[in-house]
Amino acid sequence: MRTKKELRKSMLQLRDNQCPEQKKWLDEQIVKQLTTMLDQLQPGSVHCFLPIGSEVDIMPLIEYLLFSQATVVCPRSLPKRKMENLILKSIHELENGIFGTKHPANAKRFENTYDIIIVPGLAFDHLGNRVGYGAGYYDTFLIQHPDALKVGVTYSFQLVDKIPIEEHDIQMDKVIF
After folding, report:
1. pLDDT value of residue 67
2. CB 141: neighbour CB atoms within 10 A?
């Protein structure tokens, strides 16, 4: 079994080297699945990552959620594995954050519970275990929201047989690819 460090390196390389047309098509398929799921669940609040680099582009989904009047919350990464969770009102009102991230500009903090949390990752297994970038932001955040539906988003080539897990790792309830 590969280590998390090995998985991070190989999956990031695979993801970064995708053909742009293939990536666009895969992104659209993933967003369609997410949209169908959200239409069925009708969540009031959804926590979404704002994609960076070669992550799955879920911006069309975020626009759809904003249009459907759901409360969309996006993270702002802070020091010490903490995230400030800000209400997104428009995808045109973003500012740059640490690690190349973006977050809502001039936004109010969300202090409530989440129905769904959409989580990025570099690798997932069939049990919902996840490998992220290694900073622990999402594990620290997810442990605080045990009742939210945790949905991992990835490309099919990022699915592996088994991910080495540690005590602090939080499993996804569902993985969409």
Report:
1. 95
2. 20
3-state secondary structure 99-162: HHCEEECCCCECCCCCCEEEEECCEEECCCCEECCCCCHHHHHHCCCCCCEEEEECCHHHEECC
* Residue 140 in tokens: 């620290």
What is the rounded CA–CA span in Å between residue 146 and residue 136? 16
Question: What span, in angstroms and rounded, lies between the C-alpha atoms of 84 and 110?
Answer: 8
For 133-154, the pLDDT digits (tens) are 988 899 999 999 999 999 999 9
Bridge partners of 45, per DSSP, are: 71
User: How large is the angle between the packed helices 20-41 and 59-67, nearest 10 degrees?
Assistant: 30
pTM of structure: 0.95
